[in-house]
Amino acid sequence: MSTDLPPPAAPRLYFLDWLRAAAFGLLILYHVGMYYVSWDWHIKSPHAGDTIEPLMRLSSPWRLALLFLISGAAMSMLLARRPAGFVRERSKRLLLPLALGMLVIVPPQAYLEVVHKVNYGGSYLDFMRLYLSGYGGFCRNVDCLILPTWNHLWFVAYLWVYCVALWALLKAWPSLLERLAARIDRQLGGWGMLLWPAALLALWRVLLAPRFPTTHALVDDVYSHALYFSVFLAGAVLARWGRWAAFERWRWIALAVALALWGLLAAYFAHYAGNLAPPEWLRPLQRVGYGTLQWLALVAAIGFAHRHWNHDHRWRATVVEAVFPVYLLHQTLIILAAWWLRPLGLSPAVEAPLLIAATAAGCVGGYLIVRRIGPLRVWFGLGWPTLQQAAAFDGQAASSRVTRAT
Fold this sequence. Notes:
mainly alpha, two-stranded antiparallel sheet, globular, disordered N terminus, disordered C terminus
């Protein structure tokens, strides 16, 4: 089977569009959950505990890996169709929103974090002067907040680096992805679809995770780069391979084994919580299970998406466009909404749905504003509106004026 990418007129991989949107939606729920678990986060609920931590572990091993895999596939297709100006275009789409995020969107998160954790009493403007100067004195014991920060926008920085790395690899070896696609055509037959990629991710988990804890600081995040660049490159190769139906065939087995591993890992972390340390022989087995779960969850997610979501819809283009602005805004909105709800003393059963609803409304409202304003579109990674979009906006505005007049 040819591993060449289909021509530009070929049907779009709709299931990856829907899967990407679903993964970012899951990310919003996960970050709301971070307010209520015992793990460290920017601010914490007075009700924080370990109740929902097993549910959080259901997606935490693989959710971001899925986003990097989908991004790798998208970049592979883009490079095949429009290689000219790739780095310039990716830099504009990723680095401008990253700069906006670090200067405007993220600072409220950092401000409320230092108010919450170290009882900072200065105003927001006072804090911003410290933030922009790289102040390093917001510390709890040896844990100091690094300023300025990108917080949840680390994904954007990593993605830009991986895009440039992929471009450089294809500049040096133009046929690299086709050769790798031909190779996996032989290796991923039968059980190889499940075994070999899982073995690689388990290897990274065993060898690198203990020595290089996740930092999201780019330069020292060895395990994260091994994991995320591996799946990013896998997505790029899979786009040239084209046999997405292979994931569909294995979806039920992958899902069943992934859920079984999740249950074992949830029991492991629940049993060895606090000061109780697991035996040394058990740690590598836990890491093998974790790495295996990462890949099998990806197989299941892609397989079910290919089965059920590989079709277009009139809302798809809007949903796809909205994903990036929603991602940029969501964590700041979560933290602001949580901070405003704290004085009410609501139970999590009441507060959490309100927090989700407020975040969703803020994200949708923010996107609807951003999409209509050319300069804002650029800074939120959307680019200038097309002629069709501009005409649609003008038509909607005219319709709204007529409605108000009548």
